[in-house]
Amino acid sequence: MPKVAPKKRDLVMRYVRDFPNETFRSDSNILYCDACDKAVSTTQRFQVTQHIGTAIHIANKQRNTTTVQQFITSSSSNKSTFNSDLCTALIKADIPLRKIDNINFRQFLEKYISDKIPDSSTLRKNYLPDLYKNTLINIRKNISSGPIWVSMDETTDVEGRYVGNIIVGKLNSDYASKPYLLNTEVLEKCNHSTVARFVNDSLGILWPNGILHERVLLFISDAAPYMVKAGTALHVFYPKLVHVTCLAHAFHRVAETIRSEFSEVDFLISTIKKIFLKAPSRVNVFKENYPQIPLPPEPVITRWGTWLQAAAYYCDNFSVIEDVISKLETDAVSVENAKNLIKSTSLKNNLVYISSNTTFLANSITKLEAQNLSLADSLGIVSNTVKKLKEAPGEVGIKIKKKVEQVLSKNPGLKTIEAIANIHNGSNTQTSLQFSVAELGAFKFAPITSVDVERSFSRYKNILRPNRRRFTFDNLKKYMIVNCFVDEEVDSNSNE
Q: Which of 82, 393, 422, 424 has the fewest Cβ atoms within 10 angstroms?
């Protein structure tokens, strides 16, 4: 008769009996080594004996640790506090969990720490999910029953996925609460229905026992048409919701209009950027002649206001750039273009116009990006900026004024939020706002920009760097939310 292969349960239990002096235990399906804090393969007997003979196993046995590995069927109270704290520290510092498997790092930790060091899979499988759950518990505790503001945006990541992030914060009349990354998910499509559903599902995570629809007072997004449409759809379920499109982004759109009107300046900025990019010899020419002057800026279009800052730099340092360019060898097309362009009289005139009439816009965007601004202060910045933009002279000034009026008129909740700010400023203007007195007071530190969710995407892209593309999205989501969370109490203590 042919041999019948033993059942896995019988095989595992046999190894437990055969090696009574080892630190093996089993849940009938897995042979687990308590000393090494890992599962041992049981396909062949030699795999078990090989594990027993390893130097790591012998050293771990000698440490005589008492930490018990958490099985799926075990209670969470048996989990190691050290392992949990270690996992938290690695995630908060954005150190990949796999670094714990580095032999040199492990030896260092084992030398100075009496606790047994877990491997990365143990942290990832058994501790990351709990940290994620605890983070959500802390967010719910800090937000409580609100009222809240919500900010949402989406991006396309390096894997080609539509990824949406939801930031929430508590509206409070006493102080500006911390923004919390509540959820990050892959969206099937990027349209108003998926956005509205994503927002609603995320609020279900915040309030699992039932969404408090009347406690969601403010929704901030960009001004994309599908976002505006999503805000309208959400208003059906959240009757007090005010939808404000990001005013910093609105000013960025005005800045883009300015850039489009000065193609010669735009060409200069991009050309000079190419000249000094990865060209140490040219950088040396610049530094040798003008050591006190910073190198030309490298604006990024998606970084709001950086193009205007670059234009201001060229206006202030035009003679420096002109002299450096003249000293460079014409060994590249970019250098040749720059030498021809730098002679243009209209270029100089355009730089003067931009510097004297529009560069303040970059400073306004930077001010709006600051955290903890009151609603009155934020709208004060907006009001002063709009006033200055409308004073810009000439044909370009007319186009700027038209663009400003266009972006503000398409902001659905701007008038409502301005009326609330007027109340905070002491105005006695009669309004028909459907908010209670307490809710109106809670708007004192309401945000009017979506910079918090933009920052979360910057962190997302940093975490998902080229050597970390093996993340499953579920683990990436948990990692992100734990990484981004800052407790109110911890943050206040760190600022003392």
A: 393
Residues in a beta bridge with 331: none
SS3 category, 2: coil
Helical ranges in 144-188 per DSSP H: none
**Architecture category of domain 137-246+446-484 in CATH:** 2-Layer Sandwich (3.30)
Flag whether pLDDT at 325 surpasses 60.
yes
- Which token pair is 467? 């050597």
Q: State how far the Cα of 327 lies from the Cα of 319, in Å rounded to an integer.
A: 13
Distances (CA, A) of 278 to 281, 283, 342: 9, 9, 22
Q: Which of 194, 169, 165 is nearest to 180 (CA)?
A: 169
pLDDT of 352 reads: 92
Distance CA 367, CA 290 (A): 31
Report the C-alpha gap between 277 and 213 in whole angstroms: 52
Query: 187 in helix, strand or coil?
Result: strand
3-state secondary structure of 411: coil
Q: How many CA atoms within 13 Å lie on the side-chain side of 107?
A: 5
How far apart, in whole angstroms, are the C-alpha atoms of residue 216 and residue 239?
Answer: 9
Measured distance CA(91)–CA(144) in Å, rounded: 25
Distance CA 244, CA 222 (A): 8
The phi and psi torsions of 276 (rounded to 5 degrees) equal -95, -5
Instruction: Look at strands 242-245 and 216-221 and give their pairing.
Output: parallel
Q: Hey, which residues does 169 pair with through a beta bridge? A: 149
pLDDT tens digits, one per residue of 131-185: 999 999 999 999 988 899 999 999 998 888 999 999 999 999 888 889 999 999 9
Query: What kind and span of H or E run contains 80?
Result: none
Helix, strand, coil % in the chain, rounded to nearest 5: 60, 10, 30
- Give the Cα separation of 361 and 304 in Å (integer): 10
Tokens at 250, concatenated: 């609105």
Amino acid letter, 362: A
> Tell me: the pLDDT tens digits for 254-301?
999 999 999 999 999 999 999 988 889 999 999 999 989 999 888 887
Helix, strand or coil, per DSSP, at residue 170: strand
Classify each residue of 217-250 as buried b or exposed e, where b means 16 or more C-beta atoms within 10 Å of its C-beta.
bbbbbbbbebbbebbeebbeebebbbbbbbbbbb
Residue 49 predicted with pLDDT over 90: no
pLDDT of residue 36: 76
Reference 199, options 213, 458, 131; nearest CA is 213
Nearest to 68 by CA among 23, 107, 129: 23
